[in-house]
Specification:
heterotetramer; A: 222 residues; 11-stranded mixed beta sheet; 14 strands; 30% strand; C: 229 residues; 3-stranded antiparallel beta sheet; 7 helices; 23% helix; globular; 3-oxoacid_CoA-transf_B (chains A, B); transferase (chains A, B); 3-oxoacid CoA-transferase subunit B (chains A, B)
Amino acid sequence: MSAQSNIQTSDKPLGRDELAELVARDIAPGSFVNLGIGQPTLVSNYLRPEQNITLHTENGMLGMGPVAVGEQIDGDLINAGKIPVTELPGASYFHHADSFAIMRGGHLDICVLGAFQVSATGDLANWHTGEPDAIPAVGGAMDLATGAKDVFVMMTLLTRDGVSKLVEHCSYPLTGVGCVTRVYTDKAVFLTGPDGVTVRETFGCTFEELQAMVPLPLVAAS
Amino acid sequence: MSAQSNIQTSDKPLGRDELAELVARDIAPGSFVNLGIGQPTLVSNYLRPEQNITLHTENGMLGMGPVAVGEQIDGDLINAGKIPVTELPGASYFHHADSFAIMRGGHLDICVLGAFQVSATGDLANWHTGEPDAIPAVGGAMDLATGAKDVFVMMTLLTRDGVSKLVEHCSYPLTGVGCVTRVYTDKAVFLTGPDGVTVRETFGCTFEELQAMVPLPLVAAS
Amino acid sequence: MLNFIDTVSEAVAGIRDGSTVMIGGFGNAGQPFELIDALLESGATELTVVNNNAGQGDQGLALLIKEGRVKKMICSFPRQSDSWHFDARYKAGEIELELVPQGNLAERIRAAGAGIGGFFTPTGYGTMLAEGKETRIIDGRGQVFETPIHADVALIKALKADGVGNLVYRKTARNFGPIMAAAAKHTIVQVSEIVPTGALDPENVVTPGIYVNSIVRVADALGSKEQVA
Amino acid sequence: MLNFIDTVSEAVAGIRDGSTVMIGGFGNAGQPFELIDALLESGATELTVVNNNAGQGDQGLALLIKEGRVKKMICSFPRQSDSWHFDARYKAGEIELELVPQGNLAERIRAAGAGIGGFFTPTGYGTMLAEGKETRIIDGRGQVFETPIHADVALIKALKADGVGNLVYRKTARNFGPIMAAAAKHTIVQVSEIVPTGALDPENVVTPGIYVNSIVRVADALGSKEQVA
């Protein structure tokens, strides 16, 4: 709608790995970060040692290293997705209440989560389809959404049916209210907040083409 | 008032050490115990190794040993009264919230506290004289009174002016409501509860003589 | 009182029908498989089970659910690729589910052990998991009132115990063990090793012996490093 | 962000007038005397101080109070045989006192670090320390609503830090350190020793580095074993 500034930074939509690389680049040095199960886990592949990022896993560890392979695999050392992982120097272990105190007490700088939908005001829906016969499972999603200083979402902008997942109001059951600060999608990066949605950059589409896909008013970053 | 059973077990009032020895003997083997500052601390002198009692100190330790002497003295190892103590095999250290979780969560079998007054229904007053110019200080008294499974009080039965500290209703500010289960005094051991006060044994007085000192109806143990 | 017990069967023998049983573990890490198997053998039923998940594959808690011993699950994440026994019971309406955000689950268990009557937390505010619950705005944030989860029994797994019941754990297998030990009336622990009193550094004890009632040694426990690697 | 700082003066330089400052220690054990002295030197005033006590003798927190830098004390046990500086200020009406049962003090500090908006506890129910507070009956017991205590800064003392700020403590000097580190926006730690990252066993870390902002080494700290013995 608003300014015509050229914020298109890629001539194609971003793939999952490109998007993960972008998120990784945007994490400030020295941050404490929790990467949600699924697509957000890819971000860890692109964190550079000089960024000095500490990864938290909610099942009780700070200083989580890469996925374990071969001889490293240890059933007592897993991440929140129950995948065997490794331990970096400077790691620490703690019990579940202490681990969630880190999340809920606002000590994580960033968590990166997948989503079914994000609303214009940063509401997040990522835990339940709302279908009557679905078995609900929430895990630590609500604690992360509510507790981290910044909540980044990674998702495709559109469903397989071409419907925007960035919405005026979420139709799926909420995970948290007004918690999402950034949305990284294959087609654009959105900054969400109480004043609405700003588009930081677009990938493979112009701002106007993006606006046509999203059913809520967007503002281009200046 | 009631039965004439002979419950006098000593021909003289008990001294502080005799009383401490009696309390020590009454603690069940294997108990976890917190001894309050002052007179209750004497109890530790009479605990026998075969009783296998574990002492808790609210500043963050289980398995506290005797007072430290000479080379043992270590400013980092003190009890709740800030006296240097020692560590026994099997000890553990923890922070203040974890330490008070032990007390408040009902995990201590017994705490032994001093008192200004105890009421007929087990109300405890032991932290504040209520005088307007007194500097109030409560420490862990309310947590102990409220949290331990059994609260034993050790005190002289009478004030220096000869007034009973076992009272119908406390006139001093309360530490806890209905929390005291036993009162050990120089003149008698009282069992308190919602149904009133039973005298287990008397020292240096008969039940009738005791009743004459205490302004509330007593029942002799049968 | 602390007891060292020879067999897992004896350790769980006192668990009665209708008990609320906390079971440690997150996924397989820290899950006390041998104690759970013994509980299955014991025949105890109509149980309310507190665990982060609702069983995986064909072992441990999953079997307890398969055999119809679990009346109600209190957990945060029942649905997994291999949670077929829970899925079947749930879809058949044969098991009750109290779904709790994982942080609320941990904090509610901790609250029970710490003597907290209830607490307010922002987690879950404005979601369907807060429906019917008391809420209030504190410091400008919506918060939900959550209550402690107490249990009759906790079954947990630790690495080592000493002679007074102090425990240490191993890596992320620690998870719910320490808070469940504190929240249950009776805590039963399976350990890989029992060491002499004094062999654990008092600075490094994770669960003090005051929280432990029964200890049984299970040398080559399922889910340990050797089993998985 | 974690910073290793050369001097206690630099470490406390950012503490502003009117700040709420948590100070670790129970009695002298764990009291960060050198950081407190530096705070005194810095001239910061109108402070609200959270500590179990209100200073002892003529050192540390007692001097801060003597010099009139403390507007308000939040503590459980101000009155001691050698708390003459607090006593004098208090009797002169020159210092405000919020008296908190020690367990409520610890739990309220922990609540701040853990993101809890408030909690109910039986401690203090029916006493004058519950006057004016919300109460309710939970499971048949009277309980009092208590709120978190947040702070701008925590000054604490630990034994060792590694390169990422993980801390271990020594014996009962641990006391309030771990919960204050989590409750303050900015945590400043004095340690006896800084060890390489990897030198602390991850199983034995008491305060993870995420809670630590500034570390300064004070080799021969007051109140350590050598000083007392």
